[in-house]
């Protein structure tokens, strides 16, 4: 009996122990479930917050990029001064009303920072339709006519380079062309704003204070929600209540400041993403600005596209009226810049009234100056001795110069190059502009496809297309002028084909123009193959092209200073000699910015 009782008691204890263990396990599972649920909720909450923030950032950057595209389009399509930007909307009038607030009186760099102008309201700015009348709210407004806001509903902010806004101090538009890209701009033809030099571009730096770009034309900033150190409760808060600042070491960077021509703007890290362990920034660190920028290269590339299309339109109108295209003017800062040159098939656009083109020789320096757009070739025949012949190995002619093995006393050049004697001494050389010099006595001979006139001194015409000049005495001669109508005039001239802004901004000094051998005033435009036609890519039936490469040639006579693609610059061209093959426009890159436009085909 006692044994049975003990067995029953043990069984009950065993049962109770097993039940307790099961309950304990269930409790642990329940606790683990609660903890897991809490962790999952935290992760989900964090994920949702991060996802929401990412969506907000995506929306903000879309607005920034949309505003960038709209601003470039607005500037390029500005009817009276393409490339010009609007003045920002500032709070100097007691509000941010979307109006472009132009200044009256002395200029201040603070005027170049404000909100992006948008609304069609009264403004003291000039009317973009004509660039003349003060805008009174009755015509197209000089803002974007669209409100751009970030994800939090704040209007975007905007800073613009002084180079790109109307100068009310001197009451004139800025001169906007590729010559303004690389400061300092001390070389003509680039002059602007009352004859002063242009200004450095704005600067953008990264979160560590490192330079991102110093070629910035415009900065567009999304201010985000107000930070702990900002108060936007007043009707028109100052810029610092929207735009942020922080310190890296002793350097204080402010997006709310505008006091220099090359003012810097910073692409900082959102303070929500900066952990306490990050020692890059001086604490407390508050920053949530987001920005995009427009470089002058981006703007000029788009603007050049418009200038090329305007040139194409003018040339096609010229062809319709005349049945041919004009000869080109010469490259470089010649005495008759942008005047048509007889027989010249590639150069710049002829927009000035034609006249004769002078060539001169000076005995004291044994030099002759005759641009290669005027002369097809310049030969020098020495009185005694010889040059190393082409293909003669060491000390053979270089560049665009040659020496016939059968006549080694003569060096012939149709571009930059030189000829040497056997010792290696250079005894005749030419630069790209046709300035040629000898170190020994001899005779210079010039050949053209036009007509030489008025020889004097040591120069004599052997035919209408050839002139010889002894280098022992001074002499001169000229190339006859083109016909009076071989000019692409600018409006409002009678018969003008180009808009006023084109020549006012001196685009004719930057756009390369080429015409086929058969489609100028001496041809009938009847061929269908290249040559004599030009080729652009696979198109081999092109009568004329215009091209640009947002380049600043600085008066150079070398085609490589105007265009960048190897196919467009690999042939030396002189009077009557054409490079018939051109590369089509490819996507813009660091090494190739050429834009080639077929005028007609």
Quick structural summary:
The protein is α+β, with helices and mostly antiparallel strands and 601 residues long. Helices cover 18% and strands 23% of the residues.
Key words describing this protein structure:
601 residues; alpha+beta; 3 domains; 12-stranded antiparallel sheet; 6-stranded mixed sheet; 18% helix; transmembrane helix; transmembrane; membrane
How much of the sequence lies in strands comes to 15-25%
Computed CA radius of gyration, to the nearest angstrom: 36 Å
Shape: elongated
Number of strands: 27
> For the report, how would you describe the main beta sheet?
12 strands, antiparallel
N-C termini distance: 123 Å
Instruction: Calculate the mean pLDDT score and round it.
Output: 87
Structural class: alpha+beta
Question: How many domains, in number, for the residues?
Answer: 3
Helix content: 10-25%
Q: Can you tell me the residue ranges where pLDDT is under 50 for at least 5 consecutive residues?
A: 135-141, 187-191
Number of helices: 4
Keywords: Membrane, Transmembrane, Transmembrane helix
Transmembrane segments: 25-44
Explain this structure to me?
The chain is α+β, with helices and mostly antiparallel strands and 601 residues long. It has 3 domains: 28-288, no CATH class; 300-348 and 484-600, no CATH class; 357-479, no CATH class. It is built from 4 helices and 27 strands. Strands 10, 11, 12, 13, 14, 15, 16, 17, 18, 19, 20 and 21 form a 12-stranded antiparallel β-sheet that branches. Strands 1, 2, 3, 4, 7 and 8 form a 6-stranded mixed β-sheet that branches. It has a 4-stranded antiparallel β-sheet with strand order 9-22-25-27, covered by helices on one side. Helix 1 (2-76) crosses helix 2 (296-322). The longest helix has 75 residues, at 2-76. Keywords: Membrane, Transmembrane, Transmembrane helix. The chain crosses the membrane at residues 25-44.
